[in-house]
């Protein structure tokens, strides 16, 4: 007679392997709280961009549209990656391993025509500057570090 193994009990149950490597509830809650604080700071910056960056610095210099009439759209946020798919694992070697949440920020972008073709109205570098400046006070208050060298995310 062949004995069957219950791999679900071993790997996927509330006391199995997957539970053992899950991000602890306290850590997940801390990351959720940080995410909401960061989103709040960014929303505030987009509502009042002149507090963080000169409005004309946001727009492409040769835009054929008067920038005084333009307003920034509200950013939309979407959780991405392992936390979205509930596959985040706790660090096994800490440090250097860290847990992070990937929170995507999506922005409606206007375009205009120039001699070079169709161009975004707002420079992406300006978006990065606005976001970095918006979260600097929060990062300082919470003891977080912002990596200014990374050009794909903040």
Q: What is the C-alpha radius of gyration, as a whole number of Å?
A: 22 Å
Number of strand segments: 4
Residues in helix, %: 25-40%
Tally of alpha and pi helices: 6
Low-confidence residue ranges: none
Strand content: 5-15%
- How far from one another are the termini? 58 Å
Textual characterization of the structure:
By secondary structure, the chain is an alpha+beta fold. The protein has six helices and four strands. It has helices at 7-12, 17-21, 25-47, 55-58, 81-84, 124-142; strands at residues 76-80, 102-106, 111-114, 117-120. The protein has a two-stranded antiparallel sheet. It has a two-stranded antiparallel ribbon with strand order 3-4. The longest helix is centred in the first third of the chain and has 23 residues, at 25-47. The chain is elongated and about 75 Å long. The N and C termini lie far apart (58 Å). The model has no long low-confidence stretch (mean pLDDT 83).
Please give a quick description of this structure:
This protein has helices at 7-12, 17-21, 25-47, 55-58, 81-84, 124-142; strands at residues 76-80, 102-106, 111-114, 117-120.
